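User: Show me a protein chain along with its predicted structure.
Assistant: Here is one chain, sequence first, then structure tokens.
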Amino acid sequence: MGISERKKREKEQRKNDIIDAAEKIFFKKGINNSTMDEVAEEAELSKGTLYLYFKSKEEIHFEIKTRALNILTKMFTKSICENKTGLENSMRIGKTYVDFVKKHPNYYKSMIYFESNDCSTCQFRDNCENFFKEDNPLMISTKTISRGIADGSIRSDIPANVLSQTLWAQINGILQFISTKQKILEFTGVKAEDIINSQIEIVKNGIKNKD
């Protein structure tokens, strides 16, 4: 291994160490209540060294969000079965998203943090655009819906990309409601699992081809 290659690997490792440290702080306190000083201390670095890698908390948090999307992308890809219809695989993707939220709640919160911001003014707009040119959860969903339209299992009157975005918005709305309205669910005696299953059934009946 050459010196330049070794230095590059060491720099990448240091960057990942910083992100690991930031996860511990952000997941425990939330990004708004965390400081770069705390991240530097957790990473056992000087604040000056930290700023050589990241200029702000938001820049680090973007990397955490990217980790979350990469995990979700792998889970979506793994959930798809070639011998299933597009409709069946779309339902599998929906259930996989719910599993992701249960297994990785902090990563899900990091995604929602960015979902709630205006993308047109986001300082990471170029990074976001580049990410969505590659394999990502939304693209996998869109391709799966396209296959469903092609195999006749999903309605064809709504473009695949529009339907995919609509379902993404719907499922996130349901999941955020469940995560923030626990008291309402307790008062009404409704289980979160029943709401999720109900939503999946509604989506299935709404997008399947009835011709």
